[in-house]
Amino acid sequence: MIYSLYPVLKDAIWGGEKLKTVYGKKTPLPRAAESWELSCHPDGVSSIGVAGFDGSGPVPLTEFIRIRGRSEVLGSRPAAFASFPVLVKLIDAAKDLSIQVHPDDRYAMREEGASGKTEMWYIVDCEEGASILLGFNGAYTREEVREAALNGSLPDLCCRIPVHKGDVFWLNPGTLHAIGGGITLAEIQQNSSLTYRLYDYGRLGADGRPRPLHLDRALDVLKIEKPARLGPIGRKEYHQGYVRTLLGSCHYFTVSEIDLTGTYMGFATPLSFHCLTAAEGNLLIENEGQRAEAAPGMSFFIPAGAGAYTLRGRAKVLITTI
């Protein structure tokens, strides 16, 4: 069975219009900064419905899992987690995001009673000259980092990396980072919204006050080092009709890119569901006689144990599993 995913849209002061105008996301929000494609997070639960079926409409993903059963829907690997392990987003950064860091599980649970955050970025599109900040460009003390955050010079200490479509970046907890303006990306992350800001360009929030920083906790978890892992972890595997690349993998999620020029056959075993996100181009998804058309920015859910499914067309597709 093929299920359509219906995202939760989020506004932010740095967000833009591309998720609405280019990727067809429907929302009354003035900006669409983030589209939570696959989410069971309390801050925003995405919905799910049978692809191409206009019956009773989509239901919250959490409810769908409760009714159908965790193991049956998610697979034995995701079901082994205490909570849903992954969150898949599309992000449109019209302006620079704050310079921030995420804690690991141990610190987050001890200090916040929550999960930490490991994440991966896949650049879906970007303007010419766009860049990200990732890690530091030299060796600094924590006192120097604190002072730079307070006096506005922190960007000068960061490693700035130009980006291009299809680039991949892995962010372990403790990695200093910021998405730059003019970038649309897919973020596949641990199911957490825990973020510590070090610097925010002096911007004001909706209440007219500077957005809060979290310097003490950020410095507690910060790793003052150069970026460690850039690019996909696997080599390109060339096949007739597609090229498959393992982009990244950790305890919480595994992500592959299918560069489709003809036909690809995937297989959803009882171990894990498959989340398909179309990053570029158009394709047809088929499973057990059911067909669904996918345009850029659309996401679909294949339950664990669904068996073979087929992708046809010319497109780039991200497949997230556990």
- Report helical residue fraction: 10-25%
Judged by helices, strands and strand pairing, the structural class is alpha+beta
Percent range for β-strand residues: 35-45%
CATH topology of the largest domain, which one? Jelly Rolls
CATH architecture classification of the largest domain: Sandwich
On the 0-100 scale, what is the average pLDDT? 94
Spatial separation of the terminal alpha carbons: 19 Å
Cα radius of gyration in angstroms: 20 Å
How can the largest sheet be summarized?
Answer: 11 strands, antiparallel
The level-1 CATH class of the largest domain: Mainly Beta
Describe the global form: globular
Low-pLDDT stretches:
none
What is the total domain count? 2
What's the number of helices? 8
The CATH homologous superfamily of the largest domain: Jelly Rolls
Query: What is the strand tally?
Result: 24
